[in-house]
């Protein structure tokens, strides 16, 4: 190995200036490496390569040593002033063959020293292995200059410049210049590596938190589609959900957290978890958004920069019995309805403020959806900022004409987004094709507050179950109805004035509802051995698979679900 001291090219200052303008402008590791070799050839040599550790390309830190085969390297960027890269050499993107352990090479890499190599030096470093020499050393090599890409105490890879037809030896000025360029490039590569790791982590987090892309319930068939933003932009905080509610209803949720990166993904996770919890409480759409607004304000209070914390959200609840969808928006774009006759209409929804503003109400909009309608929820990445409504309708019409299922329609839509397949912002779509419960599969009775109404309710329920061929469910349903109606009479607010409503819904499960004018929350408790009361809800819970309560504009509803699969007549 030898270091030569000769006069360098007088354009070195221009090269250093060009490097400061070009290197580091991209968060793409390969692009950054290619920028370096493009600068080095032909300014410093005929050929140049950048070799990086595989782990760096994945966003991880490389091993601390080159020895014992711990570091697998890959040919990332190449440049040849005399034409295409020679086929006998390792091609771009390919992994380098294992290199023999050489203590002096490992020491040089870890120290960050630049070294010049004669052909004999290169062959010796490769153990005089003909296959290695042929794969890594250019023919007619006169001299090479190499230096590690060292950043923040970590060796990320190596850069080599080859002179094959240039008879000059590398001067000290050449060595210093390559060291400067390598240092600048290493920092840029490490920044890109860190971004790659953060982006990968955020994408993994986001994907792990998104629900299954398709669901199939009595209320609707749903399908979601997601397209991440261009890799140069960190992942955003888009999310969607299709949540089964009581009485066969379904909640459709679409949200978009302000900002990108891990913080946005973490905020999205907290909001989605909150929505899951609030949906179990069966709150109305406006009440859900009010609770989420409070949560975002608390998140902003904890953040270092509260001005960049916020989110938009659309929460819709569809009831397959009434065929009505109630929705409210916190700064989110209104959904689009594709009716069964293929006509399209944007829902005339008045969005409230984005989550985190506080103190503002959220208006509820109702829309009737015939069976087979498709409700499309989306984030603004689908239309782009300032995107017009007609473009969205045209894209939806095109997707519907394809005749594909919902899942493929969703994928078609995200592929139509501005900038796809590498959009500037995440694109998220949730499609729901609505269903309806036939009128003959429901039964409703209005009961007085008279205790004698309990027996009449049991008799009416048994007759209806017989009509439906669900004789096997009659004993359990009788007991459920008896307990719930009795509780409504005893604990309701003047049931003789407000009345008690009993409803049965038959679908994949048998739903039993009892509604009264009281806002008292029922509580399941274990009665003592000498207690005369307190066992009703315990018995109800044992007889059904799910039960709960929800509040309405007036009073509450207690509901239960019993499976009917395998029951005669189902």
Automatic annotation (TrEMBL):
It comes from the Bacteria. Keywords: Hydrolase. Residues 220-434 form the PPM-type phosphatase domain. Coiled coil: none annotated. SUPFAM superfamilies: ATPase domain of HSP90 chaperone/DNA topoisomerase II/histidine kinase, GAF domain-like, PP2C-like. SMART domains: PP2C_SIG (SM00331). InterPro entries: Bact_Sigma-Reg, GAF-like_dom_sf, HATPase_C_sf, HATPase_dom, PPM-type-like_dom_sf, PPM-type_phosphatase-like_dom. Pfam families: HATPase_c_2, SpoIIE. The keyword Hydrolase applies. GO terms for molecular function: phosphatase activity. PANTHER family: STAGE II SPORULATION PROTEIN E (PTHR43156:SF2), STAGE II SPORULATION PROTEIN E-RELATED (PTHR43156). This is Magnesium or manganese-dependent protein phosphatase. It comes from Streptomyces albus (strain ATCC 21838 / DSM 41398 / FERM P-419 / JCM 4703 / NBRC 107858).
């Amino acid at each position: 190995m030898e270091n030569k001291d000769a006069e360098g090219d007088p354009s070195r200052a221009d090269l250093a200036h060009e490097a400061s303008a070009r290197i580091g402008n991209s968060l793409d590791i390969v692009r950054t490496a290619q920028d370096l070799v493009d600068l080095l050839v032909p300014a410093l040599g005929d050929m140049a390569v950048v070799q990086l550790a595989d782990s760096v390309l994945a966003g991880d830190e490389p091993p601390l040593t080159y020895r014992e085969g711990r570091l697998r390297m890959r040919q990332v960027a190449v440049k040849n002033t005399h034409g295409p890269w020679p086929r006998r050499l390792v091609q771009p993107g390919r992994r380098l063959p294992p290199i023999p352990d050489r203590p002096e090479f490992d020491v040089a890499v870890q120290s960050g020293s630049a070294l010049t190599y004669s052909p004999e030096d290169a062959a010796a470093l490769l153990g005089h292995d003909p296959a290695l020499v042929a794969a890594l050393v250019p023919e007619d090599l006169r001299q090479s200059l190499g230096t590690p890409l060292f950043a923040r105490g970590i060796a990320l890879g190596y850069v080599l410049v080859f002179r094959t037809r240039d008879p000059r030896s590398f001067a000290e000025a050449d060595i210093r210049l390559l060291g400067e360029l390598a240092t600048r490039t290493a920092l840029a590569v490490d920044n890109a590596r860190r971004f790659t790791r953060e982006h990968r982590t955020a994408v993994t987090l986001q994907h792990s938190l998104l629900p299954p892309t398709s669901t199939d319930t009595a209320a609707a068939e749903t399908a979601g589609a997601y397209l991440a933003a261009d890799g140069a932009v960190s992942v955003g905080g888009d999310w969607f959900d299709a949540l089964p509610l009581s009485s066969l209803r379904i909640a459709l949720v679409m949200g978009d957290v302000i900002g990108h990166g891990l913080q946005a993904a973490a905020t999205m996770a907290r909001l989605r978890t909150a929505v899951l919890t609030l949906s179990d409480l069966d709150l109305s759409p406006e009440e859900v958004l009010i609770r989420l607004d409070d949560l975002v304000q608390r998140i902003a209070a904890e953040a270092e920069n509260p001005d960049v914390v916020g989110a938009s959200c659309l929460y819709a609840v569809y009831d397959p019995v009434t065929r009505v969808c109630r929705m409210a928006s916190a700064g989110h774009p209104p959904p689009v309805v594709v009716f069964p006759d293929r006509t399209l209409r944007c829902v005339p929804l008045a969005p409230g403020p984005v989550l985190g503003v506080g103190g503002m109400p959220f208006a509820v909009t109702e829309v009737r959806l015939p069976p087979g309608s498709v409700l499309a929820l989306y984030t603004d990445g689908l239309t782009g900022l300032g995107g017009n409504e007609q473009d969205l309708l045209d894209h939806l019409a095109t997707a519907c004409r394809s005749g594909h299922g919902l899942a493929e329609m969703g994928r078609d839509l995200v592929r139509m987004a501005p900038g796809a397949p590498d959009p500037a912002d995440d694109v998220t779509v949730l499609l729901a094709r609505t269903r309806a419960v036939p009128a003959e599969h429901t039964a409703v009775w209005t009961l007085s507050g008279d205790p004698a109404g309990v027996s009449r309710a049991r008799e009416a329920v048994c007759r209806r179950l017989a009509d439906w061929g669900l004789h096997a469910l009659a004993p359990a349903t009788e007991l459920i109805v008896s307990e719930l109606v009795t509780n409504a009479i005893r604990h309701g607010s003047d049931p003789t004035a407000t009345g008690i409503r009993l409803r049965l819904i038959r679908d994949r499960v048998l739903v039993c509802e009892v509604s009264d004018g009281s806002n008292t929350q029922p509580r399941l408790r274990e009665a003592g051995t000498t207690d005369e009361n307190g066992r009703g809800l315990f018995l109800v819970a044992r007889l059904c698979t799910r039960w709960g309560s929800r509040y309405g504009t007036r009073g509450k509803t207690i509901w239960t679900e019993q499976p009917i699969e395998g029951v005669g007549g189902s």
